[in-house]
Amino acid sequence: MSSSLQSLREKLQAASVDFQNIQLELSNVVEARQKLDAQLSENEMVKKEFATLTPENIVYKQIGPVLVKQDQAEAKSTVDTRLEFIRAEIKRIETQLKDIEAKSEKKKTEIVEIQTTLQQQSQPPA
């Protein structure tokens, strides 16, 4: 076996490992995105509930096992701030997803090119 073929096989192996790592990274980022979606939904629901409150309603915040009375305006502000943060994180994650998907496509193309070259070099001359 020529050293050229061996070198190509090693490149293919390394590219395959890289691709697997990229896929794992993609999986982790998708999972983080899903958690953010759940948090966004939950906080939007809380915001809708806050919209139905009257000034006489009392708001409680859970701190550990205890419910502590909280100012309505402060509670609403906290939820708004949290929503802003979650939306910013989602934008950041979306950018990260696009970058990882681009890396994945580039690595896939590299693997196909290596495989094609390997096949061409493995065939005996006609």
UniProtKB/TrEMBL annotation:
Question: Where is it found, in Gene Ontology cellular component terms?
Answer: cytoplasm; prefoldin complex
Record-linked InterPro entries:
PFD_beta-like, Prefoldin
Q: Which keywords accompany this UniProt record?
A: Chaperone, Coiled coil
Tell me the protein's name: Prefoldin subunit 6
The chain's coiled-coil residues are 5-49, 83-117
Q: What would be one Pfam family of this protein?
A: Prefoldin_2
Offer one example of a GO biological process linked to this entry.
Answer: protein folding
The protein's GO terms of the molecular function aspect are: protein-folding chaperone binding; unfolded protein binding
Q: What family is it from?
A: Belongs to the prefoldin subunit beta family.
On whether Coiled coil is a keyword of this UniProt record, the answer is yes
